[in-house]
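Aggregate trends can hide what the representation actually does to any particular protein. In the encoding step, the backbone of a single protein was reduced to a row of integers, each denoting a local shape. The record that follows shows the chain in one-letter code together with its fold in token form.

***
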Amino acid sequence: MDTKTLMLANMVGYISVVVFMIAYNRNHLNKVNREHFISQVMFAMAFIFFSLGYFWEAFDALSTILGNIGMIFGSTFIMISIIRFCDRMSSSLYNKIIGISSILAISSAVFRIIPDFSNLRIGLVTLTIAVYLTISCFFLLKNKTKSHLQTVIAYAFLFVAFTHYYRTWEAFDFSRLYTIETPHIGHALAMIGMYIYLIISGSGVVLISKEASDEKLYHAATYDGLTGCLNRQSIVTMAQDIIDNNSSSDQVIALVMVDIDHFKALNDDYGHDVGDEMLIRFTKTLKDNMNPEDLLGRYGGDEFILLMRDQSCESIRSRCEAMRHAVEISGYESIYYTATFGVACLTSDIRFDFDHFAKVADHALYKAKTISRNAVYVQAVEA
């Protein structure tokens, strides 16, 4: 396939992507998507101008200048969108990238105006794309929350970068004139690379953006916004699954209801901001004293649920006592507070639904409070 056909295929492809992204961004516009959209518009314009130069020689110089500028800023905004997606973009870095790209764009225009500088112009633009792709790859692979999809996209970017590095090597051979009209392997590789780039940037970047949005929605639907532990619906669902499968384990299972003693009075005396901070500290204290397989969820207000497994009810009691003591000595600034634990302990493989289990734990919590707050009360679950 010749270079002209590959260029036209890229033009049609990028125009199509722009049309689809206009429709998509009507409901999903954010900074990452906006910068990604700008990159696709730039690439579409670049290939439109390059194609015009092929068919109308009178526009050759202007179309080449505008096409090169489009290629440079297309790759610029892809890189910016990736860096922003990885949460590493700052205003100073953004300004530096735009400044460097502007200098490169002006240089490419100058090299087109000066005769016999096509080698340097093509090499400069191609190398810019290759380097920006490599930087995008680096940020994706270094992203702490990277997914398998991000890894695949990163290596696809790297492959496209290598096609452009090869073309750069060809262009910087100044012993011969290097133009788009002369057949070279580098031209074909770069155009094929740009078509792969089209697929990656057209769908892949949108997918990783959607993946991140889905993860945020999942986190919001699963975890409590203030304390970071499981929310009520999630802890109930997970607890029910564990209760249903309890017959396959030789350990006892315990549902623990725990709340801060006199929390309403503390909240009224010190204010809701202090109350919220107390809940955050309280949750952290519980997490620091949990086993990795334990579950912690906020049931409502200052009431939390712990789902624990151990060898015996006495072991569960000892661990809850350790948590109670940890809360007692933790405090918040100069505020002293304590917690009470009601433990429902299931020692057999009798099947119960969560509501019954929770009622036993709630009754145990009530008993503990009537006897003495800042205490642990254990009650066996019976048929």
In short: The first strand starts at residue 252 and ends at 260.
